[in-house]
Amino acid sequence: MSASNPPASAWQATALEAQPPRRARSRPVTRQQFRGSVSLLVVLCLGLVAAADVLFYRQHLGWTLAIFGVLIGIAISIRNVRYLQSWPGRIVAAATLLVCITLVEHPGPLRALLAALGLVSIMLINRRGFTPSVPSWIARWTEFVGRCIAQAPIDMSIGNKWKRTHGAPKPVWQRVVINWVVPVALSLVFIGLFALANPVISKWLDKAGTSVGEFFTNFSEYISVGRVFLWLVVGWTSWALLRGRSRAGRSDLEAKVFNDGMITDRGIPAGLVVRCLILFNLVFAIQLGLDAITVFTSGSNLPEGMTYSQYARRGAYPLVATALFAAAFVLFTFPTGKRSAELSSQMRVARWLVCLWIVQNIVLTTSAVARLWIYVNAYGLTRLRVAAAIWMLLVALGLIWIIWRIVRHQTNAWLVRVNTVTLLTVLFACCFVNFDHLIAAHDSDHCFEITGDGARIDLNYLRGLGPEAIPTLDWLSKELGPNHTVGQQAARYAISLRTELNDQLATWQGWSWRRSQLAMLSDPLAVGPPTPSSGN
User: Fold this and answer.
1) Distance CA 241, CA 123 (A)
2) Cβ neighbours of residue 88 closer than 8 Å, sequence gap 6 or more
3) Mean pLDDT of 255-267
């Protein structure tokens, strides 16, 4: 065979090289790939932005917060339903749904905060799974707040880098513009010619031109700075929430933050702890004795110039701070877990002393509650005083858990978990209580104008509570009569708050169950939300 006639295999190789490469067969997109696709992510984010615009822009906050929370939950579930595969995830989802239901009853900062925390937790369970470690959850929540700002720019950078590496084609919108510019331009020419010949088409074009002209003339009414800001915040946050990347929050953070065997690790002698506890118990016993004498004698032995209410106000918060310092001392000096069991014989005296000291701290917290109650009887109930009472309750429960931890040889990590669950449980229960109504009812029932004793009613504060004070103000105006100055002012404030309530109920976005019930007091027909056509 001559050199000019190559073998058949060489011809076949040359022919194969000349042929264009075949495209790989496109495989059908699976459900998991569709849920994780960028296209679905963009659609969901745009849908949430559109929903936020309809529900919140220039509208009173009402049951729309619950609607938006449920929509976010649905979007998260469309992306991933891993949270439903474990009991903790189901519990978090159920609790979040219940909080959203309370938002239907009435919107509030605490309810909105817990609903947002629940939705973020569901997303984190989808991405990282559930962990009982509180430090891990704190790390995850903190990381999500940071990534809310940087997630979109990071994804854009990753996308551009991938395109440069893989030689991706031009974006779809660029291809659409290039492929449709000429056809659309020629079609517009034909439409213009037909408009000259057909008066119907000419009339349609005139209407379309008028609508476009009105849009640009009133552009500021449609597109305002506040509206664009709402779009950006919702879109930016939704992208980070549905994207859901998380690399921090590993469970081993718990071992780094909370260490067992504090005494041996810090080199604190057991005898030093015992001596400290003996002195602490002595000092606390003296304080509790003085407090008991003051409370039982109704303040008759107070220093000159100090009133009973000043005594109550001065002591409430410092006593709670003292209890917190006591808890910190126990956490960082007393052994925990297995180390506590190993040293149980050596630390028997210290254990009895620390339990006695914690019991005295619980009594001291109870004394702080008694002081707060004295102050409430003197000056009335407020939101801050209710919050202080709840805070003292949490401190007392935390001290009880410390005793349980010492007796049962539990770890500090266990103590943090159980206190976190207690905190979330108490806050969750608070979502079902109408504190503003309770405050208004208590102050009106115990005011000087009604009972002849106690503090005078602060109508300005009741006015600041909002429409929830309407029943109380109506009751005061009726009890005191139209000739009483306080009764007249209460009636005026009730009318003002009723006008505010009617303004909130003017559109369906501002409706809530509590507002509808308040409106029934003056209008029995106002029981349901207005139809969407009645508002903007």
Assistant:
1) 7
2) 125, 130
3) 43
- Please name which of 5, 204, 98 lies closest in space to residue 424, comparing C-alpha atoms: 98
pLDDT at 5 over 60: no
Task: Say whether pTM exceeds 0.85.
Answer: no
d(CA 54, CA 56): 6
Q: How far apart are CA 226 and CA 57, in angstroms?
A: 8
Which two structure tokens, joined as six digits, stand for 100?
Answer: 């959203």
- 243, 43, 216: which is closest to 150 by C-alpha? 243
With tokens 């050596």, the residue in question is 346
CA distance 437 to 337: 46
124's tokens? 């984190």
CA distance 124 to 1: 72
**Comparison of pLDDT for 329 and 400, the residue scoring more:** 400
Give the residue extent of every domain in the chain.
31-166, 257-432, 436-534
Q: Are 111 and 435 in contact (CB under 8 A)?
A: no
The pLDDT of residue 429 is above 70: yes
DSSP 167: T
Contacting residues for 397 by C-beta, under 8 A, at least 6 apart: 419, 422
| Token digits of residue 242 | 């549905």
CA gap 193, 183 in Å, rounded: 16
Q: For the segment 122-176, what is each residue's pLDDT rounded down to a tens digit?
A: 999 998 889 888 888 988 888 888 887 777 777 776 666 666 666 656 555 555 5
Write down the mean pLDDT value for the chain: 77
